[in-house]
């Protein structure tokens, strides 16, 4: 089970105004074997992002101010990190950001033990590696065309854990532009339109950046997608492993796969009620300036737990095929097994050339999907103080039990 044990703190002021833990020989630095607050977190890593080290072995910095910038702030702790840094918080905080915080390599932002909320802007991970972000709430309040967490430009070894993400006018999470080896675990996505995108088509030639973007490898497990519209997630190119996630009450569609992505989709739970009230705002702002609302689609969403394979990019593919003469198809390669459909939800995804989807190269704690598993995800996903029960791992061959 997740351990919230922390070492005794004594603080020494630094030049930046942040406080560095100075007392307790086990926690002077974030050495895993010596400091329980570090080892208890790192022991939970799974999936393609399982090697993310975060601030392991570096100094421990404690945020003491809820201002956007200046001494003792989260922004100062991140910007002034030189080498591995494990960032903690000295109290509950709501931080109203004036711009995105860019996270360099070798950083852990660890909100365990306090209620930490970031408003209006989130975090950018660009050309960075070994980043861990856990136990934060990030709420865009639909004010800015930004993302809660943007992972881009060749970033790798990133783990997002126990986050509560909502209301961003762009997306909640991107993994794009050659980024890879990312895990999202126990994240709650809610009250948002275009939730999550793995890769992003930026050219009329859909396959212009295939060599770069096909390297993406992303694991999504025990995440909760609630009262969203679409892209839970949308996957183009790359490799995705989605297991034991809960999708509940999407307003347009659930998941989407296309453009020769390779995805193993197993043990997920889809729940939808078509007689529910719409919880969307009057409209979702978009970068195109189009005011969109999707409430009218709710009566039809039960049959759209996912889009048909490749459907999200089929029209563009067919329109541009005579120009670019693609040698690759618009469908994804899919292995689909053991998913559970509750309420009015109907299955859509099915195997497509499953032999092209390899087994994950790691052990992972898989649970057969049940109502009890769904209830556990509802309770423990997000920026929660309770610990989810431990999920047994797997055998020596690196597959599910």
From TrEMBL:
UniProt keyword Metal-binding present: yes
Coiled coil location: none
Signal peptide (UniProt feature, chain positions): 1-18
Top EC class for this record: lyase
Cross-referenced InterPro entries: AmbAllergen, Pec_lyase, Pectin_lyas_fold, Pectin_lyase_fold/virulence, PEL
Region feature Disordered, mapped onto this chain: 381-401
Enzyme nomenclature, EC number: 4.2.2.2
A biological process from GO: pectin catabolic process
Protein known as: pectate lyase
Native source species: Candidimonas nitroreducens
